[in-house]
Amino acid sequence: MLLLAGAADDVNGARRKLQESLQSGAGLRCFREMVRRQGGQEEVVDNPGRLPQPSRRLEIRSPQEGYITSVDALKIGKATVRLGAGRMHLDDRVDHAVGVLVHKKVGDAVSRGAVMAEVLAGDEKRGLRVVEDVRRAMVISEQPPDVPSPVIDVIEPAEDEPAETVYR
């Protein structure tokens, strides 16, 4: 991103700037400022425990050994809305403590019983329904899938322009 914005001349220069930002604390200060400007509480950056917490954490475990061959993000997204993490109607209240944590991605090997995802729910009944939705959204196979690179192409720039990367 630094290259695209013209904030660095080359990849090594961009890496140096990012490392300096992390080591000096400038990146963290910038993140705090972003949280504050969006109306959030800066304190949660240093103490995430201040964020709303779910009353239930329900693990989704692999029923078999194999490889994750697909994850239907749309199904998982719709399931999180049913948990209360989003709105079905304009006047619906959003529960900021609920959601789905997906721990495995396409191509990952899983053993039987391994935690693939977690449902963070406000109540167990709704959470259990979403567990089933998420379980069906994650497909396991005995054979590893072909996982394409997320980078499709790097477009070489003219001499006075930064490089551009095209992602899937």
Write the layout of secondary structure elements.
Layout: H1 2-5, H2 11-24, H3 26-37, H4 43-46, E1 56-61, E2 66-71, H5 73-85, E3 99-102, E4 109-110, E5 115-121, H6 124-137, E6 138-141, E7 151-155, E8 164-167
Antiparallel strand pairs: 1-5, 2-4, 2-6, 3-5, 7-8
Please tell me about this protein's structure.
It is a single chain. By secondary structure, the chain is an alpha+beta fold. It folds into two domains: 2-48, no CATH class; 52-141, Pyrimidine nucleoside phosphorylase-like, C-terminal domain (Aldehyde Oxidoreductase, domain 3, Alpha-Beta Complex). It is 36% helix and 23% strand. It is built from six helices and eight strands. The protein has helices spanning 2-5, 11-24, 26-37, 43-46, 73-85, 124-137; strands spanning 56-61, 66-71, 99-102, 109-110, 115-121, 138-141, 151-155, 164-167. Strands 1-5-3 form a three-stranded antiparallel β-sheet, covered by helices on one side. A three-stranded antiparallel β-sheet has the order 4-2-6. Strands 7-8 form a two-stranded antiparallel ribbon. Helix 5 packs antiparallel against helix 6. The longest helix has 14 residues, at 11-24. The protein starts with a helix and ends with a strand. The model has no long low-confidence stretch (mean pLDDT 90).
